[in-house]
Write a structure and sequence with these properties.
With 913 residues, the protein is α/β, with parallel strands linked by helices. It is built from 37 helices and 24 strands. The two termini are 65 Å apart.
Length: 913
């Protein structure tokens, strides 16, 4: 299209933008509860029109409250509209006052719709040779477009001239009335012809040329839709009148009434104060408000000063111009360390797109570069790809150290835009985690704990629940401070946390040699993802559904009636009231418990609880895996991509979310079957490498118990050896039941299990369990000594350590609540083993990742599941890589007991076991 002339006559459809702003922006309110979101959106749109088009004449038009001629013609007109919400109604008066104070002519004509006022003014302006720009989101205005009248949708920044109208609707402006008459308008409750949508309307207009000609040839139109046309043909003239914008409304013909006036800064100051638009108020106080400046020059949203963090002034900047960007680029080029943070459209790292980037090179100074904010009234931003190309040399320079908070996510977002972030030096989330794993490590919590600062939360800028906006829809006045603060706080946190780590040599080593190197390893694993056979899972879902239906029938037969299996209340009534089963445990409210442990105990003696447990298990498998995993396949990769959380568990173990790949049951046949759907592509195989009895081996190392050391040194079955010692029989005489009991003792005591807990697990009386514990400790005395020593040291120090020196703080060790204290003591015994286990497998992952990259191998690490690493490998490399995988995992940390890794190969994950 030809460019819009300088200073066009602008007509703003205020009513349209009021509703669109209300539904598009978060529910902003003042401290007194006054809603302001719609006001904020409309004013931003007006400011954008001012800055981009510098009009000398302009008007903002709103609908009047009264009914108009269309209501008289057609009683159901707009009858489907809901009553305006109070929070929107309350914004109209202050919005009108603000528009007037800004110097804009505001027009509301009683009994006349804004559309008709705008249509009339546009035609009058054309008659006087003026070019008119109508700012609206309403498609009805397309009927007015010609060589002197165009539309702009400020929300999408699309300008509709004749060509664009044809491109959008496939009919020219002069046929829009006919088009709208046929399809109707659901917003205004105009029905149109039933079953006639845009495609049919366009087809008819292309064939017959006009609505009149369609009516004349109605008998020629075949099919059901032709019947609908003929049945409703008498209504078309009415619909035509309803959708036609009037252009002959009586309006005072005085061109000067549309001149922009000088803003009333006193009135604006009062309004901004009452409505708590603090940044706009500061601009007025400084004489730099864009409402004033926009008349003469294009403004920049630049500084957000005079805010304080821990009493220190801050200087935040929003980068919108080339000169601003070049200045910050130099600062980054000259910095040896800077913080970086990305803002995106989604938490799903594979699907998320970058909306903006923030940096900080000095505490208190930060910048936000918006790249893809596209809300109504958003200012023009620097091109995203161009900005990334300018930043690429710095971001990919491994000598320029970056600090972030949860940098793994940022690595993956940059990767989505083909930027390979290097120099990943520090992660404040992990610094916090290594210093105290039992705390929470999101930025808000860490800032509060370390800086005594309350950060701007995402919900404060984007809203909550169903009305929460994606970040690209958050206005820059709110997005800028939030994003810049993220970078600033990250740098401040690093300056606060790093000295603490440096004073703790072992923790610093854990951070530098395990947690930070692992960030890039996990990012690569996550982006690789796992290939899933969706068809196979679908078939498994069908099988599970059939089995669940069969179980339902069995359960209802035993219960003697149908009931809701997912209702604890109904299950209580069946089990304990109707069938009279013993009450094992009660809920906090005094009701009989139907929890899984309770049902497991009841299932030892009664068939119904056993069937219910089986039903629950199958239901969980179906809903969590066989139904859901296919839905989580990413379209662009055809794979499932989990997220590995580094800073969640107290012991250092990784956890997996969205989806959780670490909780697929392996004891049941159905659970193992799910693993068969984790497949290798053609020409590749799956390798599963699993540590064998690693925590027992770590216990042997830590306790230096001669019996355990000897068993592992001679590569004996540790559970058989334990059974032989505890039950006083030869290794050859150990029965399967004795081995089972010995295994329960081995793992139970390692997790701090009491004799009471052991008795419950084995189904024996407490005295027998106590005897087994005594015999165990008599055979392995150093294990008992290690446990006692660990418990005492933990109580004294408040923490325990892994072999690598990772600390687990246990504040409940000093609790007066004996339940909490005993739980902390049990954790103190297990944590060194589980934490050392975590350190070992993490180090193995780091070493294997480096070996794969250094040798450019067609081998990918695709999953970490507790004690197991899973790989996808070119089938020609299997014999080459297995010895290295096995050796690296077994020697990740030298222990006095040799670690053992079992390796399997298959076409799928289950086959590889």
């Amino acid at each position: 299209m030809s460019p819009i002339p300088k200073s066009p006559f602008i007509l703003v459809d205020g009513s349209s933008y009021l509703f669109r702003a209300y539904h598009a922006l978060p529910p902003l309110t003042t401290s007194k509860g006054q809603a302001t979101g719609a006001i904020f959106g409309v004013i931003n749109m007006l400011k954008k029109l001012l800055t981009e088009y510098a009009p000398k004449q302009m008007a903002v038009i709103f609908d009047s409250k009264e009914k108009n001629f269309r209501h008289a013609l057609y009683q159901p007109y707009k009858a489907n509209r809901v009553i305006m919400p109070d929070e929107l109604q309350s914004q109209i008066a202050p919005l009108h006052a603000m528009i007037k104070a800004m110097g804009f002519p505001l027009i509301v004509i009683p009994g006349v719709e804004a559309d008709d006022v705008i249509g009339t003014l546009a035609r009058k302006a054309k008659a006087k040779g003026l070019f008119t720009l109508i700012s609206t989101g309403d498609k009805d205005f397309a009927q007015l477009v010609d060589d002197q009248i165009v539309l702009i949708n400020t929300m999408s920044n699309v300008i509709y001239d004749r060509d664009q109208v044809i491109k959008k609707f496939e009919v020219p402006p002069e046929r829009m009335i006919d088009y709208l008459s046929l399809i109707g308008d659901s917003v205004d409750n105009i029905p149109g012809i039933p079953k006639v949508g845009p495609k049919t309307a366009v087809k008819w207009l292309e064939t017959y040329g006009s609505l009149d000609n369609i009516i004349a040839h109605a008998k020629d139109i075949s099919g059901k839709v032709g019947d609908y046309l003929r049945e409703n043909i008498s209504l078309l003239p009415l619909y035509q009148e309803l959708v036609t914008i009037k252009t002959d409304v009586t309006i005072e013909d005085n061109p000067e009434q549309f001149d922009l006036r000088e803003p009333d800064t006193s009135a604006l100051s009062t309004l901004f104060t009452e409505l708590e638009f603090k940044s706009w108020l500061k601009e007025i106080d400084k004489g730099t408000n864009t409402i004033i400046e926009a008349r003469t020059e294009t403004p920049e949203i630049t500084k957000m000063s005079e805010i304080s963090i821990s009493a220190n002034p801050i200087d935040y900047e929003i980068i919108l111009t080339l000169s601003q960007f070049e200045a910050w680029l130099k600062r980054l080029q000259n910095a040896n360390l800077f913080s970086v943070d990305t803002e995106t459209t989604s938490l799903n790292y594979m699907a998320a797109e970058m909306v903006g980037i923030s940096f900080s090179v000095k505490p208190g100074q930060a910048a936000y570069i918006p790249l893809a904010h596209d809300y109504m009234g958003a200012p023009e931003q620097l091109p995203r790809q161009w900005v990334l190309e300018q930043l690429r040399p710095i971001l990919e320079d491994h000598q320029k150290l970056k600090v972030g908070h949860n940098l793994k996510y940022d690595i993956e977002i940059f990767a989505n835009h083909n930027i390979h972030l290097q120099g990943v030096g520090f992660d404040t989330m992990l610094e916090s985690y290594v210093l105290g794993s039992t705390e929470r490590h999101n930025m808000d919590k860490v800032a509060e704990r370390e800086l005594q600062h309350k950060t701007i939360t995402f919900e404060e800028v984007a809203g909550k629940g169903a009305k929460q906006l994606p970040f690209n829809q958050v206005p820059l006045e709110m997005a800028g401070p939030y994003a810049a603060e993220d970078a600033d706080i990250t740098l401040r946190l690093h300056h606060a946390l790093w000295p603490k780590l440096c004073h703790l040599e072992k923790q610093k080593k854990v951070f530098e040699t395990i947690e930070m190197p692992l960030v890039s390893v996990l990012a690569r694993m996550e982006r690789t993802g796992v290939l899933i056979d969706a068809q196979q899972l679908s078939e498994q879902s069908t099988e599970l559904q059939k089995r669940m239906q069969a179980l339902e029938k069995e359960i209802f037969a035993l219960a003697g009636q149908d009931f809701n299996l997912n209702s604890p209340k109904q299950l209580q009534e069946i089990l304990f009231t109707k069938l009279g089963l013993p009450i094992i445990e009660k809920t906090p409210t005094g009701q009989p418990s139907t929890s899984e442990p309770t049902l497991q105990e009841l299932a030892l003696h009664f068939p119904l609880p056993s069937l219910i447990l089986e039903y629950r298990s199958l239901s969980k498998l179906k809903s969590t895996y066989t139904d859901k995993l296919p839905e989580q396949i990413q379209p662009k990769t055809g794979r499932v991509h989990t997220s590995y959380q580094q800073a969640i568990t107290a012991t250092g173990r990784l956890s997996s979310t969205d989806p959780n790949l670490q909780n697929i049951p392996i004891r049941s046949q159905e659970g193992r079957k799910i693993r068969t759907a984790f497949i290798a592509p053609p020409g590749y195989k799956i390798i599963a490498a699993d540590y064998s009895q690693i925590e027992l081996r770590i216990m042997a190392h830590l306790s230096q118990d001669k019996g355990l050391l000897q068993a592992f040194t001679h590569n004996e079955d540790i559970h058989v050896s334990t059974a032989s010692a505890v039950f006083g029989v030869s290794v050859e005489e150990v029965s399967s039941e004795q081995r089972r009991r010995a295994k329960a003792v081995n793992f139970g005591l390692m997790y701090g299990m009491s004799a009471f807990g052991l008795a419950k697990q084995l189904g024996v009386d407490r005295k027998e369990a106590e005897t087994m514990v005594e015999q165990y400790f008599a055979c392995f005395p150093s294990v008992k000594a290690f446990m006692e020593k660990t418990r005492l040291e933990a109580s004294e120090l408040g923490y325990v350590e892994t072999v690598m020196g990772r600390r687990l703080y246990l504040p409940d060790l000093k609790s007066k609540n004996m339940g909490l204290k005993r739980a902390a003591e049990r954790a103190a015994i297990n944590a060194p083993m589980q934490g050392t286990n975590a350190d070992i497998i993490k180090l193995a992952m780091i070493q294997l990742d480096k070996w794969i990259l250094d040798n450019h191998l067609d081998l990918k690490m695709i999953m970490q599941v507790h004690d197991e690493l899973v790989f996808e490998v070119k089938d020609t490399l299997i014999e080459t890589v297995i010895p290295v995988i096995k050796s690296t995992m077994e020697n990740a940390i030298p222990l006095s007991v040799k670690l053992q890794v079992e390796v399997g190969v298959g076409n799928n994950w289950e086959e590889a076991h």
